[in-house]
Design a protein that fits this description.
Elements lengths: L1 E6 L5 E10 L2 E5 L11 E6 L2 E11 L2 E5 L17 E11 L13 E7 L3 E6 L8 E7 L5 E2 L2 E10 L2 E10 L2 H16 L2
Antiparallel strand pairs: 1-2, 1-4, 2-3, 3-6, 4-5, 5-6, 7-8, 7-10, 8-9, 9-13, 10-11, 10-12, 12-13
């Protein structure tokens, strides 16, 4: 078992059992979850590392805490970048350069999973491995990200191909949108 020390704004100290730690989300079992409110700022100590955080959700005896991505991985058991399953339409095309690209409707892809470092998607046409593409993904509420990707693996299916890709380049704003989307998907599990 792993434990986390939580210090509230009014300096109350609570020790909670860390149930899950994936990406930017910690799920902590606490004795008195009613003492925590969504939006409250916390100071947390885990593995002798102190960081500031916020309560994102409470449910039964659990509080869901935002643990920002940090340069130092807080735990070797933490999956640094969670992958969330989705069913989202997207478009892909060749990356001519940083600013010139078209998003033709015939280059449709079906996004199947999303992570901070990359995407999984399916298409009925073959793409080149290790070749740069621009992926156009519309997330919830019209949030759009357009990262530059590289295909890292290809699996042939009966209906086409499944691709795994890593993000090669992404704007700061698109990265923020992507992190927000992944965290919101984790909270809605």
């Amino acid at each position: 078992m792993h434990y986390i020390k939580i210090i509230t704004q009014d300096q109350r100290v609570c020790i909670g059992e860390l149930m899950e730690f994936e990406g930017e989300l910690m799920i902590v079992n606490v004795n008195h979850p009613e003492k925590f409110n969504v939006g409250h700022t916390l100071s947390c100590i885990y593995n002798e590392f102190t960081f500031n955080s916020k309560v994102l959700k409470t449910k039964e005896n659990f509080i869901y805490i935002h643990a920002p991505l940090l340069k130092n991985n807080l735990s070797c058991e933490r999956r640094k970048y969670p992958r969330v399953g989705v069913t989202i339409n997207g478009y892909i095309n060749n990356c001519i350069n940083e600013t010139i690209f078209e998003l033709p409707p015939d280059q449709h892809v079906g996004i199947t999973n999303i992570a901070i470092e990359g995407f999984g998607f399916e298409a009925d046409y073959l793409l080149k491995k290790s070749f740069p593409y621009i992926l156009h993904v519309e997330l919830n509420n019209k949030m759009i990200v357009k990262p530059r990707i590289l295909i890292t693996n290809i699996t042939e299916l009966d209906t086409g191909y499944r691709f795994g890709c890593q993000i090669n380049k992404i704007s700061d704003e698109d990265n923020r949108i992507l992190r927000f989307f992944i965290l919101s998907q984790q909270l809605n599990k």
